[in-house]
Amino acid sequence: MPTARADGVSAVVGGRVFVIGGTNREVPNNGYSRLWANEGFRAADGVWEVRAPMPTARGHMAGDTLGGVIYVVGGSTVVEVYDTLEVYDPNWDAWTVGPSMPTTRWNVAGASVGDKLYVAGGEVSRMVATDALEVFDPSTQTWSARPAMPTARFKAGSAVLGGRLVVVGAETAVGVSNRGDAFIP
After folding, report:
1. What is the Cα–Cα distance from 3 to 129, expressed in whole angstroms?
2. Fold category of 101-185 in CATH
3. What's this model's pTM, rounded to 2 decimal places?
4. CA 157/CA 184 separation, integer angstroms
5. Looking at the chain, which residues constitute the CATH 2.40.10 domain(s)?
6. pLDDT in tens, 16-25
């Protein structure tokens, strides 16, 4: 990969794996080592391409693919936390900005389920977790809240299984969690 990083988003579109944003202490892009970088790996020939940079340099965000475009939401620099939603269209190599999510946060989990993007948990301030579960509907360009998670947490893993968002593990206000929860869209 052209740019070393941690805490970025990866998503697959049309035979490419895209790696977007993240952190790298050796790259002081914006003074906080957060990256604008957007790079795509073409699986067919094993070549990395440098693509249009993300408008907001950040790490610790969530993202996934819906309808052939990549949605990236939340995240942070060292001093700023975002509610920002940015959308990357690999066919046009271009970014647009969508409506901000209701809860500003970083270290957030998320995935697309069906035709919507779900965002779960995260940190709202240093070591303060949220139990928020919110969903973005690209067809209406709106966010809505879902019933809160049973446990406020951040740095959780997430996946989709059987049409349900599954959120596992994480940090909480009192330590590390081994809890797993599934949410019906």
Report:
1. 30
2. Thrombin, subunit H (2.40.10)
3. 0.91
4. 17
5. 101-185
6. 999 999 998 7
